[in-house]
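Tokens as discussed.
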């Protein structure tokens, strides 16, 4: 048995400008994330990191889980279209007012085309 190797990017993918690659990867990640968000409260998406060469994006989501707020870490693998949950830590409700309002995502209103930090 050998190591599993990531496929080499296709010519069509590498022909895209880096911002277009980021946009495409972000849209796909948000489509996978949307079903995991709570339906009764807002969430905030923060601290995105992209690895375009390997079609990966990491990000945090602040959300309500039952009676408490948590900060969850996710990794999206665009090559195989899978969203991985990487764990969570408690988030203090008193810190919610410090979160950037432009990063809030309301239930059923996630806009896949909206890039992080207001980029389009």
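Sequence:
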């Amino acid at each position: 048995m050998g190591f599993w190797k990531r496929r080499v990017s296709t010519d069509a993918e590498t022909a895209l400008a880096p911002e277009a690659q980021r946009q495409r990867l972000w849209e796909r990640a948000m489509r996978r994330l949307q079903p995991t968000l709570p339906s009764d409260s807002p969430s905030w998406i923060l601290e995105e990191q992209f690895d375009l060469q390997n079609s990966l994006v990491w990000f945090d989501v602040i959300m309500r889980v039952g009676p408490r707020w948590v900060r969850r870490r996710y990794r999206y693998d665009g090559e195989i279209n899978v969203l991985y949950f990487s764990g969570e830590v408690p988030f203090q409700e008193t810190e919610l007012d410090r979160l950037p309002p432009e990063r809030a995502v309301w239930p059923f209103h996630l806009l896949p085309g909206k890039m992080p930090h207001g980029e389009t």
